[in-house]
């Protein structure tokens, strides 16, 4: 099972900082997401230093917002990275395998 099976994402970017919100499709899956989608795992999945990722929990929305500083390598319009927009990072994050799953 992958993260996209239990949640969807919304993204935004400002300068070289990306925001990725992970929102549970169903409230009953939110506790599992809280346990498995940590700042450390997000950093690993996005190949970012752990210190660059901050997680904010929004329990009333069954959501988390991750702020990733420096992820866009100078900003979308200045970066030489291919497709450095937050949407690309969101897709990479939502492909993260969840533990205890077969895929």
Q: What value does the average pLDDT take?
A: 86
Kindly estimate the percentage of residues that lie in beta strands according to DSSP.
Answer: 25-35%
Biggest sheet descriptor = 4 strands, antiparallel
As laid out across the biggest beta sheet, the strand order is 1-2-4-3
Order of helices and strands: EEHHEEH
Characterization of the model:
The structure is a single chain. The chain is an alpha+beta fold. Helix content is 22%, strand content 27%. It is built from 3 helices and 4 strands. Strands 1-2-4-3 form a 4-stranded antiparallel β-sheet. A hairpin with a 4-residue loop joins strand 3 and strand 4. The mean pLDDT is 86.
Using brief descriptors, characterize the structure shown.
103 residues; alpha+beta; Alpha-Beta Plaits; 3 helices
Helices and strands in order:
Blueprint: E1 7-14, E2 17-24, H1 30-36, H2 39-45, E3 53-58, E4 63-68, H3 86-94
Antiparallel strand pairs: 1-2, 2-4, 3-4
Brief overview, please?
The protein is an alpha+beta fold.
């Amino acid at each position: 099972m992958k993260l996209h099976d239990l949640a969807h994402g919304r993204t935004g970017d400002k300068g070289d900082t990306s925001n990725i919100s992970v929102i549970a499709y169903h409230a009953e899956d939110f506790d599992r997401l809280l346990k498995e989608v940590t700042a450390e795992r997000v950093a690993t999945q996005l190949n970012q230093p752990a210190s660059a990722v901050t997680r904010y929990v929004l329990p009333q929305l069954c959501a988390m917002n991750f702020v990733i500083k420096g992820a866009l390598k100078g900003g979308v319009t200045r970066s030489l990275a291919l497709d450095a927009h937050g949407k690309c990072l969101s897709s990479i994050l939502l492909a993260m395998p969840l533990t205890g799953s077969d895929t």
